[in-house]
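PROTEIN DESIGN WORKSHEET
SECTION A - STRUCTURE
LENGTH: 466
C-ALPHA CELLS:
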C-alpha cells in the first residue's frame, strides 16, 4: 500500500481502489476542479515511462498553485480493462469539470490516446504530453521537450506535481489529423504490403488493396521511408541506441542512394473543391524536383527529431514574395516539400541548412500516381511500410483534436487574420472516415490494432471496408 501526504498537499491511493465513472475526489471539504488522466505507455523510452506505473498508485490528490485542487489518475495503456475504464471515466466527467489526458510516451502514444478518446466520443478533451519516445516531434513543438523530465517523480512526487502544474497552465490549440491512403494495383499477382515486425520483414494485410492511416506529424514517400524500414530491423531498447542506429543507416544512404522520385512517380497533384467541373483550376501539379529522393508532407514544424525544413528566414519579412506562409497548427493545410536526400534533412537538423530542400505547395488534398510495377517505401509518423506494385496515394484532411501547448512552444496557432498562401487552394470537407481514428501503437508496444489498416474495416469498428 502507498499512502502519503506531502507538504505540497498530495495524497495517493492504491491500485485496489474501485474503478469506473464517479465524481472527482475531494481534498478535505473542497471540491476538486481538475482531473488529469496519465495514460502511460510503459514500453516507451526504454522502459523509463514504467516509473509512473511502478508507483503502484492509481489515484493522487494534489493541491496546485492558486489553491487549485486536482485529482491525478494513472493507468497503463497496455492494460485493456483499465484503459477502457479510464476513458469511460473521461467521457463521464468531461462536461462537469476540467478534464485533461496526458499521453506518457512517444508521438505514437499520442495517436493511441486520440484513438481511445474517439471511441468514447471525447475528441474535445485536450491532450498533454510527457515525452518518452525517440523523436518526440509533436512534444517538441508543443513545448513539452524532447525527452522526459529528470527527475520524473521526485521526493514526495514533487517533480511530478510540477509537471502536472505545467500541464494545468497550458493553453489549448487545435491539431489537424490527416488520412493517408496507399493503394495497390488491382488484379496484380505481385502486389503486396510489407512491414517490419519483431525486426523481421513480413507480408501484411494480405488480400487488401488499400490501407489507410491517420497522420499527426508527417507522411513521406521515398528515401526516409526506406531508411525507417532499415531502422526498424535494428531498433534498440534505448533512445540513444535508436538515434545511433538511425544516423548509421542514414549515412549508408549517402553511399548507396535510394531511387530518385521520377523513377517511380508518374504524377503528383494538389486538388481543390472550388469547382470540380473546372479541371484546370481544381487540379494543380506538384512541381517537385524530380531528381530528389523524398516527397514530404508536413503537419507540424518538426521532422526527424527536431528538424524544421519548411521554415525560411524571409517568411517573417513583410516584403516576402515566396507565395508561401509560415506553418500554423489547426489551419487544415499541409506543407509539401521535396528533399534531395536524408543527408539534407540531417543538415537541416544540425545546421538549419535548407540546401537540397524545396518547398513545393501548401494545401489540403493531394494525390500521387505511381508508374506500373513500382516498389515504393512510405512512412507515417515514423512507422514504415513497403508496397510492391503500388498504384497511388491519397492524402486528405480528416478532423481536429485539441492539444495542450506549454509556454515557449514552437507551434504557432493559426491567427484570426492570417492571409491564405498563394500556393494553396481551399480545404475540402472532412471525409466520413475522419470521425473514427484508428488505434496506433508506440514503438515497443503490442499494438491494440494493426498499424496500417484496410480501408474496409469490419462494421463494428465504425469504419469502412474493401
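SECTION B - SEQUENCE
RESIDUE ASSIGNMENT:
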Amino acid at each position: 500500500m502507498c499512502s502519503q501526504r506531502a507538504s505540497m498537499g498530495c495524497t495517493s491511493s492504491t491500485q485496489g481502489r474501485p474503478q469506473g465513472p464517479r465524481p472527482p475526489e475531494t481534498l478535505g471539504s473542497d471540491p476538486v476542479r481538475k482531473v488529469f488522466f496519465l495514460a502511460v505507455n510503459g514500453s516507451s523510452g526504454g522502459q523509463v515511462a514504467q516509473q509512473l506505473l511502478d508507483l503502484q498508485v492509481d489515484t493522487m490528490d494534489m493541491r496546485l498553485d492558486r489553491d487549485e485542487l486536482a485529482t491525478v489518475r494513472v493507468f497503463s495503456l497496455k492494460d485493456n480493462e483499465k484503459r477502457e475504464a479510464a476513458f469511460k471515466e473521461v467521457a463521464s466527467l468531461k462536461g462537469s469539470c476540467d478534464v485533461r489526458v496526458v499521453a506518457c510516451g512517444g508521438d505514437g502514444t499520442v495517436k493511441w490516446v486520440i484513438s481511445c478518446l474517439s471511441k468514447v466520443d471525447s475528441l474535445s478533451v485536450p491532450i498533454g504530453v510527457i515525452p518518452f519516445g525517440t523523436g518526440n516531434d509533436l512534444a517538441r513543438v508543443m513545448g513539452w521537450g524532447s525527452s522526459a523530465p529528470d527527475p520524473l517523480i521526485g521526493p514526495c512526487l514533487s517533480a511530478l506535481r510540477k509537471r502536472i502544474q505545467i500541464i494545468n497552465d497550458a493553453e489549448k490549440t487545435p491539431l489537424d489529423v490527416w488520412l493517408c491512403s496507399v493503394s495497390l494495383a488491382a488484379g496484380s499477382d505481385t502486389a503486396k504490403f510489407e512491414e517490419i515486425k519483431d525486426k523481421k520483414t513480413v507480408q501484411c494485410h494480405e488480400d487488401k488493396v488499400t490501407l489507410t492511416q491517420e497522420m499527426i506529424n508527417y507522411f513521406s514517400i521515398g528515401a526516409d521511408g526506406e531508411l525507417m524500414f532499415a531502422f526498424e530491423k535494428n531498433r534498440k531498447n534505448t533512445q540513444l541506441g535508436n538515434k545511433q542506429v538511425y544516423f548509421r543507416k542514414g549515412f549508408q544512404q549517402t553511399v548507396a542512394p535510394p531511387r530518385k522520385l521520377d523513377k517511380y512517380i508518374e504524377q503528383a497533384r494538389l486538388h481543390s473543391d472550388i469547382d470540380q467541373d473546372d479541371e484546370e483550376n481544381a487540379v494543380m501539379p506538384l512541381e517537385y524536383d524530380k531528381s530528389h529522393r523524398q516527397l514530404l508532407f508536413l503537419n507540424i514544424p518538426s521532422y526527424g527529431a527536431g528538424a524544421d525544413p519548411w521554415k525560411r528566414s524571409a517568411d517573417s519579412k513583410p516584403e516576402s514574395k515566396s507565395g508561401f506562409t509560415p506553418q500554423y497548427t489547426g489551419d487544415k493545410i499541409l506543407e509539401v516539400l521535396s528533399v534531395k536526400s536524408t543527408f539534407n534533412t540531417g543538415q537541416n537538423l544540425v545546421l538549419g541548412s535548407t540546401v537540397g530542400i524545396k518547398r513545393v505547395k501548401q494545401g489540403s488534398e493531394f494525390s500521387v500516381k505511381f508508374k506500373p510495377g513500382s516498389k515504393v517505401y512510405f512512412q507515417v509518423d515514423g512507422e514504415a511500410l513497403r508496397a510492391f506494385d503500388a498504384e497511388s496515394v491519397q492524402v486528405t484532411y480528416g478532423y481536429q483534436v485539441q492539444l495542450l501547448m506549454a509556454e515557449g512552444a514552437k507551434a504557432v496557432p493559426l491567427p484570426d487574420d492570417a492571409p491564405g498562401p498563394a500556393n494553396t487552394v481551399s480545404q475540402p470537407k472532412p471525409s466520413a472516415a475522419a470521425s473514427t481514428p484508428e488505434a496506433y501503437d508506440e514503438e515497443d508496444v503490442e499494438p491494440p490494432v494493426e498499424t496500417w489498416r484496410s480501408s474496409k474495416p469490419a462494421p463494428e469498428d465504425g469504419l469502412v471496408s474493401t
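SECTION C - NOTES
Confidence is low (pLDDT under 50) at residues 1-9, 11-29, 422-450, 455-466.
Residues 271 and 283 are 5 Å apart (CA to CA).
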